[in-house]
Amino acid sequence: xxxxxAVLGGGAAGFFGAIACAEANPGLTVYLIEKSxxxxxxxxxxxxxxxxxxxxxxxxxxxxxHYPRGGKQLKEPFRQFGAQDTVQWFEQRGxxxxxxxxxxxxxxxxxxxxxxxxxxxxxxxxxxxxLTSTAVTSIMPLPDxxxxxxxxxxxxxxxxxxxxxxxxxxxPKAESYAWLQALGHSLxxxxxxxxxxxxxxxxxxxxxxxxxPLARVVLAGEKLDYxxxxxxxxxxxxxxAVLKLSAWGARRxxxxxxxxxxxxxxxxxxxxxxxxxxxxxxxxxxxxxGILNNPLLGLPQRLWRTLVEQAGIGTxxxxxxxxxxxxxxxxxxxxxxxxxxxxxxxxxxEFVTCGGIPLSEVNLxxxxxxxxxxxxxxxxxxxxxxITGGFNFQAAWTTGYLAGRAMAA
Length: 409
Description:
Blueprint lengths: L3 E5 L3 H13 L4 E5 L7 H9 L4 E2 L4 H4 L7 H10 L2 H10 L4 E3 L4 E4 L4 H15 L2 E3 L2 E8 L5 E7 L3 E5 L1 E4 L11 H4 L6 E6 L1 E4 L12 E9 L5 E8 L3 E3 L1 H9 L1 H6 L3 E7 L6 H15 L14 H10 L13 H13 E6 L1 E3 L5 E5 L5 E2 L4 E2 L5 E3 L13 H18 L1
Parallel strand pairs: 1-2, 1-10, 2-6, 10-22
Antiparallel strand pairs: 3-5, 4-5, 7-8, 8-9, 11-19, 12-15, 12-18, 13-14, 13-16, 14-15, 16-17, 20-21
Helix pairs in contact: 1-6, 1-13, 2-6, 4-13
Protein backbone atom coordinates (compact mmCIF):
# COMPACT_ATOMS: atom_id res chain seq x y z
CA UNK A 1 0.00 0.00 0.00
CA UNK A 2 2.82 2.38 0.93
CA UNK A 3 4.30 2.46 -2.55
CA UNK A 4 1.34 2.22 -4.94
CA UNK A 5 0.26 5.13 -7.14
CA ALA A 6 -2.58 5.09 -9.68
CA VAL A 7 -3.19 7.33 -12.68
CA LEU A 8 -6.70 7.39 -14.15
CA GLY A 9 -6.78 8.11 -17.88
CA GLY A 10 -4.60 6.83 -20.70
CA GLY A 11 -4.33 10.10 -22.60
CA ALA A 12 -1.58 12.69 -22.91
CA ALA A 13 -1.77 14.01 -19.32
CA GLY A 14 -2.16 10.54 -17.79
CA PHE A 15 0.83 9.09 -19.63
CA PHE A 16 3.01 12.09 -18.86
CA GLY A 17 2.04 11.96 -15.18
CA ALA A 18 2.64 8.21 -14.88
CA ILE A 19 6.03 8.43 -16.63
CA ALA A 20 7.17 11.45 -14.59
CA CYS A 21 6.19 9.69 -11.36
CA ALA A 22 7.80 6.34 -12.20
CA GLU A 23 11.02 7.92 -13.52
CA ALA A 24 11.40 10.19 -10.48
CA ASN A 25 10.88 7.34 -8.00
CA PRO A 26 11.60 3.86 -9.44
CA GLY A 27 10.66 2.29 -6.09
CA LEU A 28 6.97 3.08 -6.62
CA THR A 29 4.43 0.78 -8.25
CA VAL A 30 2.63 3.01 -10.76
CA TYR A 31 -0.62 1.89 -12.39
CA LEU A 32 -2.08 3.62 -15.46
CA ILE A 33 -5.77 2.75 -15.74
CA GLU A 34 -7.78 3.38 -18.93
CA LYS A 35 -11.44 2.45 -19.24
CA SER A 36 -11.39 1.99 -23.05
CA UNK A 37 -9.28 -0.58 -24.93
CA UNK A 38 -7.39 2.25 -26.69
CA UNK A 39 -4.55 4.34 -25.30
CA UNK A 40 -3.67 7.89 -26.38
CA UNK A 41 -6.70 8.13 -28.68
CA UNK A 42 -6.60 11.93 -28.98
CA UNK A 43 -2.84 11.97 -29.51
CA UNK A 44 -3.29 9.60 -32.44
CA UNK A 45 -5.94 11.67 -34.26
CA UNK A 46 -4.76 15.18 -33.44
CA UNK A 47 -3.43 17.46 -36.14
CA UNK A 48 -4.89 15.29 -38.89
CA UNK A 49 -2.87 12.30 -37.66
CA UNK A 50 0.34 14.34 -37.36
CA UNK A 51 -0.03 15.29 -33.65
CA UNK A 52 0.41 18.99 -32.90
CA UNK A 53 2.61 18.33 -29.84
CA UNK A 54 3.11 21.91 -28.64
CA UNK A 55 3.63 25.47 -29.89
CA UNK A 56 6.93 27.24 -30.58
CA UNK A 57 6.29 29.75 -27.81
CA UNK A 58 9.02 29.45 -25.20
CA UNK A 59 8.07 32.47 -23.06
CA UNK A 60 5.57 31.56 -20.28
CA UNK A 61 4.22 35.14 -20.34
CA UNK A 62 3.37 34.81 -24.05
CA UNK A 63 2.29 31.17 -23.84
CA UNK A 64 -0.46 31.90 -21.29
CA UNK A 65 -2.10 34.37 -23.69
CA HIS A 66 -3.40 31.43 -25.75
CA TYR A 67 -5.64 30.04 -22.99
CA PRO A 68 -9.21 31.39 -22.76
CA ARG A 69 -9.45 29.69 -19.35
CA GLY A 70 -6.60 29.03 -16.92
CA GLY A 71 -3.99 31.17 -18.66
CA LYS A 72 -3.20 33.45 -15.75
CA GLN A 73 -2.81 30.52 -13.35
CA LEU A 74 -0.59 28.55 -15.76
CA LYS A 75 2.25 31.09 -15.82
CA GLU A 76 4.13 29.54 -12.89
CA PRO A 77 3.54 25.91 -14.01
CA PHE A 78 4.89 26.85 -17.47
CA ARG A 79 8.03 28.22 -15.80
CA GLN A 80 8.50 24.78 -14.22
CA PHE A 81 7.78 22.84 -17.43
CA GLY A 82 7.05 24.79 -20.61
CA ALA A 83 7.08 24.28 -24.36
CA GLN A 84 10.89 24.21 -24.54
CA ASP A 85 10.94 21.48 -21.88
CA THR A 86 8.45 19.47 -23.94
CA VAL A 87 10.69 19.71 -27.00
CA GLN A 88 13.71 18.56 -24.94
CA TRP A 89 11.73 15.76 -23.28
CA PHE A 90 10.85 14.21 -26.64
CA GLU A 91 14.32 14.85 -28.10
CA GLN A 92 15.94 13.01 -25.17
CA ARG A 93 13.77 10.02 -26.12
CA GLY A 94 14.72 10.13 -29.78
CA UNK A 95 11.84 12.18 -31.20
CA UNK A 96 12.73 15.41 -33.00
CA UNK A 97 10.06 18.11 -33.29
CA UNK A 98 9.85 20.83 -35.97
CA UNK A 99 8.08 24.19 -35.95
CA UNK A 100 5.87 25.28 -38.85
CA UNK A 101 5.46 28.89 -40.02
CA UNK A 102 2.45 29.44 -37.73
CA UNK A 103 4.35 28.13 -34.67
CA UNK A 104 2.67 24.71 -34.40
CA UNK A 105 5.14 21.94 -33.61
CA UNK A 106 4.98 18.40 -35.00
CA UNK A 107 7.27 15.37 -35.00
CA UNK A 108 9.60 15.49 -38.03
CA UNK A 109 8.00 12.20 -39.13
CA UNK A 110 4.62 13.99 -39.47
CA UNK A 111 3.08 10.96 -37.79
CA UNK A 112 1.23 10.94 -34.47
CA UNK A 113 2.23 7.28 -34.08
CA UNK A 114 5.77 8.54 -33.40
CA UNK A 115 4.51 10.43 -30.35
CA UNK A 116 2.18 7.65 -29.16
CA UNK A 117 4.94 5.01 -29.45
CA UNK A 118 7.42 7.27 -27.66
CA UNK A 119 5.03 7.69 -24.71
CA UNK A 120 4.18 3.98 -24.58
CA UNK A 121 7.86 3.02 -24.71
CA UNK A 122 8.81 5.57 -22.02
CA UNK A 123 6.04 4.18 -19.78
CA UNK A 124 7.22 0.60 -20.41
CA UNK A 125 10.85 1.46 -19.63
CA UNK A 126 9.82 3.29 -16.44
CA UNK A 127 7.91 0.19 -15.31
CA UNK A 128 4.40 1.69 -15.46
CA UNK A 129 1.73 -1.04 -15.26
CA UNK A 130 -0.90 -0.26 -17.90
CA LEU A 131 -4.44 -1.61 -17.42
CA THR A 132 -6.82 -1.08 -20.37
CA SER A 133 -10.56 -1.85 -20.61
CA THR A 134 -10.69 -1.17 -16.86
CA ALA A 135 -12.96 1.42 -15.26
CA VAL A 136 -12.88 2.93 -11.79
CA THR A 137 -16.42 2.92 -10.41
CA SER A 138 -15.71 4.35 -6.96
CA ILE A 139 -12.99 6.17 -5.04
CA MET A 140 -13.04 5.90 -1.24
CA PRO A 141 -10.62 7.99 0.84
CA LEU A 142 -8.92 5.71 3.39
CA PRO A 143 -8.81 6.76 7.06
CA ASP A 144 -5.01 6.88 7.41
CA UNK A 145 -4.09 8.15 3.93
CA UNK A 146 -4.65 7.09 0.35
CA UNK A 147 -7.64 5.78 -1.59
CA UNK A 148 -9.46 2.56 -2.26
CA UNK A 149 -10.42 2.12 -5.92
CA UNK A 150 -13.12 -0.23 -7.16
CA UNK A 151 -11.98 -1.45 -10.59
CA UNK A 152 -14.35 -3.17 -13.02
CA UNK A 153 -13.75 -4.65 -16.45
CA UNK A 154 -10.76 -6.73 -17.53
CA UNK A 155 -8.77 -6.08 -14.31
CA UNK A 156 -11.66 -6.02 -11.81
CA UNK A 157 -10.35 -5.71 -8.24
CA UNK A 158 -10.16 -3.48 -5.19
CA UNK A 159 -6.93 -1.46 -5.39
CA UNK A 160 -5.54 0.53 -2.47
CA UNK A 161 -3.24 3.40 -3.54
CA UNK A 162 -1.17 5.97 -1.67
CA UNK A 163 -1.51 8.71 -4.32
CA UNK A 164 -4.02 9.15 -7.14
CA UNK A 165 -3.85 11.24 -10.32
CA UNK A 166 -7.11 11.97 -12.14
CA UNK A 167 -6.36 12.66 -15.82
CA UNK A 168 -9.63 11.46 -17.33
CA UNK A 169 -9.96 14.31 -19.84
CA UNK A 170 -12.82 16.67 -20.50
CA UNK A 171 -16.44 15.58 -20.88
CA PRO A 172 -19.37 17.50 -22.36
CA LYS A 173 -21.85 16.56 -19.62
CA ALA A 174 -21.76 17.49 -15.93
CA GLU A 175 -22.81 13.94 -14.93
CA SER A 176 -19.39 12.70 -16.05
CA TYR A 177 -17.84 14.57 -13.09
CA ALA A 178 -20.31 13.29 -10.45
CA TRP A 179 -17.73 10.95 -8.87
CA LEU A 180 -15.37 13.91 -8.29
CA GLN A 181 -18.20 16.01 -6.89
CA ALA A 182 -18.94 13.11 -4.52
CA LEU A 183 -15.45 13.71 -3.08
CA GLY A 184 -16.46 17.31 -2.34
CA HIS A 185 -15.00 19.04 -5.41
CA SER A 186 -17.13 21.59 -7.20
CA LEU A 187 -17.50 21.88 -10.97
CA UNK A 188 -17.34 24.69 -13.50
CA UNK A 189 -20.11 23.65 -15.89
CA UNK A 190 -18.59 21.93 -18.94
CA UNK A 191 -19.47 23.32 -22.37
CA UNK A 192 -17.82 22.64 -25.75
CA UNK A 193 -14.91 24.71 -27.05
CA UNK A 194 -13.16 24.62 -30.45
CA UNK A 195 -16.10 24.09 -32.80
CA UNK A 196 -17.09 25.20 -36.28
CA UNK A 197 -20.16 27.20 -37.27
CA UNK A 198 -23.17 25.66 -39.00
CA UNK A 199 -24.58 28.02 -41.64
CA UNK A 200 -27.43 26.04 -43.27
CA UNK A 201 -28.54 28.97 -45.48
CA UNK A 202 -24.99 29.89 -46.48
CA UNK A 203 -24.60 31.60 -49.88
CA UNK A 204 -21.12 30.00 -49.91
CA UNK A 205 -22.36 26.38 -49.85
CA UNK A 206 -21.08 25.63 -53.35
CA UNK A 207 -17.56 26.78 -52.42
CA UNK A 208 -16.75 23.89 -50.09
CA UNK A 209 -12.99 23.45 -49.67
CA UNK A 210 -12.04 27.03 -50.54
CA UNK A 211 -9.90 28.74 -47.92
CA UNK A 212 -8.46 32.22 -47.43
CA PRO A 213 -5.19 32.66 -45.51
CA LEU A 214 -6.50 35.61 -43.49
CA ALA A 215 -10.06 36.61 -42.63
CA ARG A 216 -11.58 38.39 -39.65
CA VAL A 217 -14.68 36.88 -38.07
CA VAL A 218 -16.82 39.00 -35.74
CA LEU A 219 -19.86 37.86 -33.83
CA ALA A 220 -22.45 40.61 -34.38
CA GLY A 221 -23.49 42.38 -31.19
CA GLU A 222 -20.75 40.70 -29.10
CA LYS A 223 -17.20 41.64 -28.15
CA LEU A 224 -15.92 38.56 -29.93
CA ASP A 225 -13.71 38.54 -33.01
CA TYR A 226 -10.69 36.67 -34.33
CA UNK A 227 -8.38 36.81 -37.33
CA UNK A 228 -6.82 33.85 -39.10
CA UNK A 229 -7.21 31.35 -41.92
CA UNK A 230 -10.83 30.57 -42.79
CA UNK A 231 -12.17 27.47 -44.53
CA UNK A 232 -15.54 27.19 -46.28
CA UNK A 233 -17.18 23.81 -45.60
CA UNK A 234 -20.34 22.07 -46.83
CA UNK A 235 -21.98 22.87 -43.46
CA UNK A 236 -20.70 26.42 -42.93
CA UNK A 237 -17.31 27.85 -41.96
CA UNK A 238 -14.28 26.44 -40.16
CA UNK A 239 -10.53 27.04 -39.95
CA UNK A 240 -8.45 28.66 -37.18
CA ALA A 241 -10.33 32.00 -37.29
CA VAL A 242 -13.62 30.26 -36.40
CA LEU A 243 -12.14 27.66 -34.03
CA LYS A 244 -10.23 30.24 -32.01
CA LEU A 245 -13.26 32.55 -31.88
CA SER A 246 -15.32 29.62 -30.59
CA ALA A 247 -12.75 28.98 -27.84
CA TRP A 248 -12.70 32.58 -26.58
CA GLY A 249 -16.48 32.75 -26.85
CA ALA A 250 -17.29 29.21 -25.65
CA ARG A 251 -19.43 30.28 -22.67
CA ARG A 252 -21.19 33.15 -24.46
CA UNK A 253 -21.94 31.03 -27.54
CA UNK A 254 -23.36 28.34 -25.25
CA UNK A 255 -25.64 30.98 -23.68
CA UNK A 256 -26.70 32.08 -27.17
CA UNK A 257 -27.47 28.40 -28.00
CA UNK A 258 -25.08 28.73 -30.96
CA UNK A 259 -27.38 31.16 -32.77
CA UNK A 260 -26.16 34.49 -34.12
CA UNK A 261 -24.65 36.32 -37.06
CA UNK A 262 -20.99 35.94 -37.99
CA UNK A 263 -19.65 38.92 -39.95
CA UNK A 264 -16.72 37.98 -42.17
CA UNK A 265 -14.13 40.49 -43.38
CA UNK A 266 -12.43 38.70 -46.30
CA UNK A 267 -9.78 41.40 -46.74
CA UNK A 268 -8.30 42.44 -43.38
CA UNK A 269 -6.62 44.73 -42.49
CA UNK A 270 -9.00 46.75 -44.73
CA UNK A 271 -11.96 48.52 -43.15
CA UNK A 272 -14.89 49.88 -45.16
CA UNK A 273 -13.17 53.28 -45.34
CA UNK A 274 -9.71 52.07 -46.42
CA UNK A 275 -11.22 49.68 -48.96
CA UNK A 276 -13.30 52.50 -50.48
CA UNK A 277 -10.14 54.64 -50.86
CA UNK A 278 -8.22 51.71 -52.34
CA UNK A 279 -11.01 50.99 -54.86
CA UNK A 280 -11.10 54.63 -55.93
CA UNK A 281 -7.45 54.42 -57.00
CA UNK A 282 -7.87 50.97 -58.51
CA UNK A 283 -10.89 52.01 -60.62
CA UNK A 284 -9.06 55.05 -61.95
CA UNK A 285 -6.27 52.80 -63.25
CA UNK A 286 -8.33 49.74 -64.32
CA UNK A 287 -11.65 51.11 -65.58
CA UNK A 288 -11.68 48.90 -68.70
CA UNK A 289 -11.24 45.66 -66.76
CA GLY A 290 -14.23 43.38 -66.30
CA ILE A 291 -15.16 42.88 -62.64
CA LEU A 292 -16.33 39.26 -62.52
CA ASN A 293 -13.24 37.54 -63.93
CA ASN A 294 -10.55 39.63 -62.25
CA PRO A 295 -10.41 38.86 -58.51
CA LEU A 296 -8.99 41.57 -56.26
CA LEU A 297 -6.84 41.48 -53.14
CA GLY A 298 -5.72 37.87 -53.64
CA LEU A 299 -9.18 36.36 -53.14
CA PRO A 300 -9.83 32.95 -54.73
CA GLN A 301 -11.57 33.21 -58.13
CA ARG A 302 -14.71 31.29 -57.14
CA LEU A 303 -15.16 33.23 -53.89
CA TRP A 304 -14.72 36.54 -55.73
CA ARG A 305 -17.31 35.54 -58.35
CA THR A 306 -19.79 34.61 -55.62
CA LEU A 307 -19.30 37.95 -53.83
CA VAL A 308 -19.70 39.88 -57.11
CA GLU A 309 -22.88 37.94 -57.95
CA GLN A 310 -24.24 38.43 -54.39
CA ALA A 311 -23.70 42.18 -54.83
CA GLY A 312 -25.93 42.05 -57.91
CA ILE A 313 -23.20 43.11 -60.35
CA GLY A 314 -23.77 41.96 -63.95
CA THR A 315 -21.42 39.42 -65.52
CA UNK A 316 -20.18 41.85 -68.22
CA UNK A 317 -19.84 44.97 -66.03
CA UNK A 318 -16.51 46.84 -66.18
CA UNK A 319 -15.10 48.85 -63.28
CA UNK A 320 -15.73 52.14 -65.12
CA UNK A 321 -19.44 51.22 -65.41
CA UNK A 322 -20.03 50.17 -61.81
CA UNK A 323 -22.85 52.09 -60.11
CA UNK A 324 -22.07 53.56 -56.65
CA UNK A 325 -24.92 51.57 -55.06
CA UNK A 326 -23.50 48.25 -56.33
CA UNK A 327 -19.97 49.21 -55.36
CA UNK A 328 -21.20 49.92 -51.81
CA UNK A 329 -22.87 46.53 -51.72
CA UNK A 330 -19.67 44.80 -52.85
CA UNK A 331 -17.62 46.68 -50.22
CA UNK A 332 -20.14 45.63 -47.56
CA UNK A 333 -19.81 41.95 -48.57
CA UNK A 334 -16.01 42.17 -48.60
CA UNK A 335 -15.67 43.66 -45.11
CA UNK A 336 -18.89 42.52 -43.37
CA UNK A 337 -20.47 39.52 -45.08
CA UNK A 338 -23.25 38.26 -42.75
CA UNK A 339 -23.57 34.51 -42.20
CA UNK A 340 -26.49 33.24 -40.10
CA UNK A 341 -25.01 30.79 -37.57
CA UNK A 342 -27.51 28.09 -36.61
CA UNK A 343 -25.61 25.66 -34.43
CA UNK A 344 -22.15 24.16 -34.20
CA UNK A 345 -20.24 21.15 -35.41
CA UNK A 346 -17.55 19.70 -33.16
CA UNK A 347 -14.07 19.84 -34.59
CA UNK A 348 -13.63 16.17 -33.65
CA UNK A 349 -9.84 15.96 -33.72
CA GLU A 350 -9.39 18.91 -31.38
CA PHE A 351 -12.58 18.63 -29.31
CA VAL A 352 -11.99 20.43 -26.06
CA THR A 353 -14.14 21.03 -23.00
CA CYS A 354 -14.37 24.45 -21.40
CA GLY A 355 -15.00 23.84 -17.69
CA GLY A 356 -14.09 21.14 -15.17
CA ILE A 357 -12.51 21.14 -11.70
CA PRO A 358 -11.96 24.79 -10.66
CA LEU A 359 -8.29 25.78 -10.35
CA SER A 360 -8.99 27.44 -6.98
CA GLU A 361 -9.38 23.91 -5.54
CA VAL A 362 -5.94 22.77 -6.76
CA ASN A 363 -2.39 23.63 -5.68
CA LEU A 364 -0.86 24.52 -9.06
CA UNK A 365 2.71 23.79 -7.91
CA UNK A 366 1.86 20.12 -7.40
CA UNK A 367 -1.60 19.76 -9.03
CA UNK A 368 -2.77 18.37 -5.69
CA UNK A 369 -6.34 18.80 -4.49
CA UNK A 370 -6.71 21.36 -1.71
CA UNK A 371 -9.50 19.18 -0.28
CA UNK A 372 -7.89 15.72 -0.36
CA UNK A 373 -4.14 15.16 0.24
CA UNK A 374 -2.71 12.68 -2.25
CA UNK A 375 -5.37 13.38 -4.92
CA UNK A 376 -3.96 15.15 -7.98
CA UNK A 377 -5.42 16.42 -11.25
CA UNK A 378 -3.93 16.94 -14.72
CA UNK A 379 -5.10 17.83 -18.20
CA UNK A 380 -8.54 18.65 -19.41
CA UNK A 381 -10.42 17.46 -16.33
CA UNK A 382 -9.32 20.85 -14.94
CA UNK A 383 -10.94 24.14 -15.97
CA UNK A 384 -8.12 24.85 -18.43
CA UNK A 385 -8.40 25.06 -22.19
CA UNK A 386 -6.36 26.56 -24.98
CA ILE A 387 -7.04 27.59 -28.54
CA THR A 388 -6.05 25.28 -31.39
CA GLY A 389 -2.32 25.10 -32.15
CA GLY A 390 -0.74 22.68 -29.66
CA PHE A 391 -1.73 24.62 -26.53
CA ASN A 392 -4.06 22.00 -25.06
CA PHE A 393 -1.38 19.31 -25.32
CA GLN A 394 1.12 21.66 -23.68
CA ALA A 395 -1.24 22.14 -20.72
CA ALA A 396 -1.56 18.34 -20.51
CA TRP A 397 2.22 17.77 -20.55
CA THR A 398 2.83 20.51 -17.95
CA THR A 399 0.12 19.54 -15.46
CA GLY A 400 0.88 15.82 -15.90
CA TYR A 401 4.59 16.35 -15.31
CA LEU A 402 4.07 18.48 -12.18
CA ALA A 403 1.52 16.04 -10.75
CA GLY A 404 3.76 13.03 -11.48
CA ARG A 405 6.83 14.59 -9.86
CA ALA A 406 4.82 15.63 -6.81
CA MET A 407 3.37 12.13 -6.35
CA ALA A 408 6.87 10.64 -6.58
CA ALA A 409 8.22 12.85 -3.80
